[in-house]
Design brief:
Blueprint: H1 2-6, H2 15-22, E1 31-35, H3 42-54, H4 69-76, E2 83-85, H5 94-99, E3 104-105, H6 112-116, H7 119-123, E4 132-136, H8 144-155, E5 161-167, H9 175-178, E6 182-185, H10 191-202, H11 204-207, H12 210-216, H13 221-228, H14 230-249, H15 251-258, H16 263-281, H17 293-300, H18 305-321, E7 324-325, H19 328-341
Parallel strand pairs: 1-5, 1-6, 2-4, 4-5
Antiparallel strand pairs: 3-7
Helix pairs in contact: 2-3, 10-13, 12-13, 14-15, 14-16, 15-19, 16-17, 16-18
The chain binds zinc ion.
Amino acid sequence: MTDDTRAEALPSWLEASLIALLGLRQSLPHALLIQGPRGIGKGLLARHFAQSLLCESPLPDGRACARCDACGWFAAGNHPDFRQVSPLADEESGGERAERSRSERARPEIKIDQIRALAGFVGVGGHRAGRKPVVIDPADGLNLPAANALLKTLEEPSGETVFLLVAAQGAAVAPTVRSRCVPWTVPAPSADLARDWLGARLGSEQAARAADWLALADGAPLRALALAEPGAAAAHRLLLQAVQEIPETGAMRIAEGFGSQAAPLWVPLLQSWVSDLARVLAGAPAQRYPGQQAVLRRLAQRTRLHTVTAFATWLDQQARVSSHPLNARLYAEDLWLRYEALFAR
Ligand SMILES: [Zn+2]
């Protein structure tokens, strides 16, 4: 994700935030915590801000020129005065994996070695004359040792380094880290801006579905775009079929189809479905699946609110501890059997 978003254009709803951030240039805090709803482009904003700080001939309003050497290096991902720290994909060692008592892996984290690796960068002067931005995205992905290691750097500001921490939930960032950052909140885009942006991205055939994807993404356009990508969209189709058929078809047959699906693609969709089912049971309209209101009403007649909310709570906890179960088939069976049980007589 990092590589292809680095040079991506800034969505229009983030322009005002970028200009406002650039207004801080003369008195820039040592560390900013950029927070706001998930999937609205906070990471993109942080990178555009970082590029603007590095640019050697910025535009009058402070934005990056996209033409100078510094902008070229940044776009190529090799500016010597810039670092981005994000969870590494699947680098857990065999030993670490064996140590786990549960047959599953936790969600990706930023680890202490990644923060220690910044020491050389933070400790020496920049290669060029300007600032040295470090983007940490997502900052709530820092595990505890990593957060503690970062603390030392945040406590002893060094030179021109500027930390830009990005988090959907500022409250999920370690309090010791959070308290040393200046909070910066990015607002969500208006529904019109979000729909126009997504519609343009999806192309003419899919544009009509922009509203559906946005509903599922709580109005966050980048998250909606990710949901509309072919792999995620296929998981979505499968899920819609499953939730409608299960009371009749039974969970075991349905689970088969999910054995080959990555849990992070479909479990959040099931969480959203269950949350909408609870809403309908409580007399509220569906929020994430407004087009499925009739199905949700039909299912609601076969279950009870407290049963559904108990399952929703269990599912949320489950999704937090296990984003990549080792045995996808068993994991799917377990979840779908529990879903089926919601409608037991
Ligand atoms: Zn430039």
